[in-house]
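User: Structure with fe (ii) ion, tokens only please.
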Amino acid sequence: MTLKFVVMSDLHVMPEGELSMTLDTGARLQQAVDAVIARYGDADFCVLAGDLTDLGQPAAYEHLKTIIARLPIPVHITLGNHDDRPAFLDVFGADFAAETGKIDKIIDIKGYRIILLDSSEPGRVDGVLEAAQIAWLRGHLAEAEDRPVIVILHHNANALHINSDTIRILEPDAFVEALKTHPDIRQVIAGHVHLTSTATWRGLPFTTLAGGHYSVTVDQAHVPMRRLAGPGQMAFVLGTEDSTTVLFDDFIDGNEEIVLAVD
Ligand SMILES: [Fe+2]
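Assistant:
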């Protein structure tokens, strides 16, 4: 009974027909949906981990909604700094808001608890987890008892030793202290940095995926970091009783199959 789910992040969808940083993010998301249909149709669900749209217009959320309607599995959503919460709720429905007022969510499945946290804060590029969210998180971690937990949010909490460390979760100590109240945090998965990384920090495992928009080079000297057109990347997470694995699927610029000649 393996838990399987897909994480997409940083979709940066624009209203139909408009580009973001020269990229057709709607078309890229269509490719991501095609990849899920081709490879992950038996997954339990898909998470969209924020920066769903580039500029937060209602028309961009409508475009997003149209594209993800083709996904053959349930979709769970939280927001990033490029999103607009009122516009999102207008298009997707008020039910997405948790009692915290933000787009937080609990998913209990196959012995796991998955917790989505909305780290977006209007007017800010960095991430904020409000006191009410930390209290909500602590409560739901306690309720999970010893079940394995995976936390997914837009902003990375840990420093990656790159230029954008200044826009990670603001004041992450309360978040880390809350996570440490639970005995089995399997992963903390984020997007935001448009870069693939894996790390341990304060004894906890942190991962970022590059997401669907541009990617950045790891270039400490170049500010801002150079932007690359690819890959378009999603994560595929597999959870068993004693293991949690994150695989990265570059659905754009990374999946060309090697075809060997057969004599
Ligand atoms: Fe982003």
